[in-house]
Amino acid sequence: MKSVGFIGWRGMVGSVLLNRMREENDFLKITPHFFSTSQSGQYGPTINNIVFKNLKDAYNLNLLEEMDIIITCQGGSYTDTVYSKLRKNNWQGYWIDAASTLRMKDDSIIVLDPVNLKVIKKALDNGIKTFVGSNCTVSLMLMALGGLFSNNLIEWISVSTYQAASGAGAKYVIELLKQMGSLYNVVSQDLSNELSSILDIEKKISQKMKDNDFPLKYFSVPLAGSLIPWIDIDMGNGQSREEWKGQFETNKILGSKSKIIIDGTCVRISSIRCHSQSFLIKLNKNISLKNIEEIIVSHNKWVDFIPNNIQETICKLTPSAVTGTLKIPVGRVRKLSMGDKYFSAFTVGDQLLWGAAEPLRRMLNLLINI
Ligand code: NAP
Question: Which of 63, 62, 41, 61 is CA-nearest to residue 52?
Answer without folding.
Answer: 41
